[in-house]
């Protein structure tokens, strides 16, 4: 068992749950399910893919620190049910913090680096958006190869597009996720689609 002042990780075999020092960040390892809340608008559930479970556990303290300390949210990870529940507390300055917190958590799950996902919490007018890539039938093999290589690697082309559009991009299967302002998300989408349809 590992613990710090921000979160407590509990072995999956332990049939109890424990909380952090401030009680607002915990990993629940039992079969416990949350009690119904009167105001569901004050709670958001974020589904965690099974292959991301251990990643969330390992990084729990880092992920939840800004949520608990700055957004003043409560975070609970239900390991067996595979979802994270975020909810407001009496100290939460505004409900918008809950929405930002959920988008931040989703961004981390999709594969964005923590420092990039944090933009969703601290930079105004920054959003998480996504779009599907065109079907294979619409593209020629060279475009498919070069485009997927660009999106799934850390090559120079990706960095150039991210810098020029002031955005961050992650590819998950056939879906592209983008972090940025509304304008920059549109610019990044155009850049990616232009790459796909290049001759």
TrEMBL record:
<feature type="compositionally biased region" description="Polar residues">
    <location>
        <begin position="17"/>
        <end position="33"/>
    </location>
</feature>
<keyword id="KW-0694">RNA-binding</keyword>
<dbReference type="Pfam" id="PF22891">
    <property type="entry name" value="KH_PNO1_2nd"/>
</dbReference>
<dbReference type="InterPro" id="IPR055211">
    <property type="entry name" value="KH_PNO1_2nd"/>
</dbReference>
<protein>
    <recommendedName>
        <fullName>PNO1 second type I KH domain-containing protein</fullName>
    </recommendedName>
</protein>
<dbReference type="InterPro" id="IPR036612">
    <property type="entry name" value="KH_dom_type_1_sf"/>
</dbReference>
<dbReference type="GO" id="GO:0003723">
    <property type="term" value="F:RNA binding"/>
</dbReference>
<feature type="region of interest" description="Disordered">
    <location>
        <begin position="1"/>
        <end position="42"/>
    </location>
</feature>
<dbReference type="GO" id="GO:0005634">
    <property type="term" value="C:nucleus"/>
</dbReference>
<feature type="domain" description="PNO1 second type I KH">
    <location>
        <begin position="155"/>
        <end position="196"/>
    </location>
</feature>
